[in-house]
Protein: Lipoprotein
Organism: Asanoa ishikariensis
Amino acid sequence: MSARRIAATALSGVVLVAGCSSTSAPGDPRSRPTSAAEGLSASDEVVNAFKESYDRLFDAGSFSVVITTGPIQVQGWVDDRRDALKTTVFYNGRSSETVRIGDDLWMQEKLGSDTWYLVDVSRLDQSDPVLRSLDLGRFAGLLDGLVSATRGGDELGGPYKGVADLRLAAKNASAARRPGAERERDSARNAAAVPVRGVLDDAGRLKQLTYTLEVAEGQATATIMTDDLGEPVEIDPPPAGQVKKAPEGFYDQWG
């Protein structure tokens, strides 16, 4: 299982298990045929560039990401070359760290603790707000429903402004991603027209994404910032002496 899939669908159904399509990442956008050759209008080309920008992150092999939504902040590191992901989550004074390498998942309930739990992902509750926040792809998934976009200036990086339809995003989601996309669609009062802003780098990779959902509790704004594209990242298993099988009490809290 690739880190692309791990990062794209961490906790929609099961934690960090399945996700977006496992097709290869798109190539360098600067090497693609022109829109005239492809039969695309200028507006179509802008929409496609913005829509594909999250997947293009994986062209770099590794990257870091900070996601902020309401009281939750997620700091993540992805190493697609090693099928690895590490996240640190801060939520209302509560913090946790998760490491995923291949099919193995470890979780530290409190930063700095001497104990890591080896987790049976099938027993975790997908509705937990902290766990759902680990689904990095969930936050960018609305780009699958992008229906219009404009780009400021002539540079590929933008900035971009667009409108996403969460109904279309849910329809276009993979089978593993669809339940989470449908929940987001159903919870948003502005599901048909979510305003989106973004910035890409000069290779068409997502650098910043911001959008606001109107939900029952008010407005929920999500911001994604990526950095360190292609830089070395250390994602290692916890020390063996600190690892324990997750006890029943762990699943009572998180499951």
Summary: The domain at 3-20+42-254 is CATH 2.50.20.20 (outer membrane lipoprotein receptor (LolB), chain A). The first strand starts at residue 62 and ends at 69.
